[in-house]
């Protein structure tokens, strides 16, 4: 792979053109990652109802920006990627058929600031038009107790509790899943960097088919959000980072946010993080109603 030349991006044909990453299949998890980068008109993708027409978007945290791994592009070039992107692509890769996805690290020409700025302005549309959004929280292993939180959230979300009822069943489930130290595990899980990113607001709120993934484990966003809501109602104690993350998750799809102006959104999410000053605006533009 190291003998291949570095991939060079072709300019986009128009402001409405986006790049889509075609992730080639592989049965072996450790097999080299092979992709094809294609151009597509974003408005045409609105009508993409099948996997060969549409695409899926990914919401994730870059982590260390240093490119430490390589992928093969168009069977002729190589492209450096971060460790987190490499791991994420391996978990998203299918065994038998390609997957069309949008990943900012690869679908945006990071060296072309003019193009990148224009594409970032349209980021909300990218996530809104996607057939599905994958939330990538990072890798984990079978022994990681945080993985049990997925099973716990599914069980909690399935509870049929009347608003006036007590929430002991929530605590009972947490006790069975984690034992007596569930608060530490919940704090650790919700302290992951993804939950502090401002970009996640529009990346999740603008799409109705969202899946939360942690390694090979996944849960539908609707179940995840309901589980978080019941955790909050059960008055489970959290650290401040986890509390902020829970508040952000529960704010998605709220009536006030659906009708919010940009200034209101900026105030509501002032504590969330962005790596660039201009992203504090761009990350919320897709949601603003003014």
Automatic annotation (TrEMBL):
Domain of life assignment: Eukaryota
Record-given protein name: HET-domain-containing protein
Domain Heterokaryon incompatibility: 55-203
Stored InterPro entries: HET, HetReg/Transcr_Mod
């Amino acid at each position: 792979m190291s003998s291949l030349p570095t991939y060079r991006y072709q300019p986009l044909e128009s402001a409405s053109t986006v790049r889509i990453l075609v992730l080639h299949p592989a049965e072996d998890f450790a097999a080299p990652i092979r992709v094809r980068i294609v151009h597509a008109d974003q408005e045409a993708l609105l009508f993409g109802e099948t996997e060969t027409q549409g695409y899926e978007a990914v919401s994730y945290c870059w982590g260390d920006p240093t490119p430490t791994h390589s992928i093969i592009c168009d069977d002729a070039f190589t492209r450096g990627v971060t460790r987190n992107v490499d791991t994420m692509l391996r978990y998203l890769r299918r065994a038998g058929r390609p997957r069309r996805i949008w990943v900012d690290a690869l679908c945006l020409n990071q060296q072309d600031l003019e193009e990148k700025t224009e594409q970032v302005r349209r980021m909300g549309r990218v996530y809104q038009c996607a057939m599905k959004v994958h939330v990538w929280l990072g890798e984990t292993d079978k022994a990681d107790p945080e993985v049990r939180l997925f099973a716990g959230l599914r069980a909690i979300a399935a509870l049929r509790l009347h608003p006036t009822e007590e929430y002991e069943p929530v605590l009972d489930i947490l006790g069975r899943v984690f034992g007596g130290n569930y608060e530490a595990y919940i704090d650790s899980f919700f302290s992951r960097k993804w939950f502090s990113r401002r970009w996640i607001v529009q990346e999740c709120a603008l799409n109705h088919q969202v899946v939360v993934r942690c390694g090979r484990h996944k849960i539908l966003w609707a179940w995840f959000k309901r589980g978080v809501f019941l955790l909050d109602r059960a008055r489970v104690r959290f650290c401040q980072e986890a509390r902020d993350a829970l508040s952000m998750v529960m704010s998605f799809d709220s009536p006030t946010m659906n009708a919010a102006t940009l200034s209101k959104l900026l105030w509501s999410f002032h504590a969330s993080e962005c790596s660039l000053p201009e992203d504090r605006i761009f990350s919320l533009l897709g949601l603003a109603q003014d």
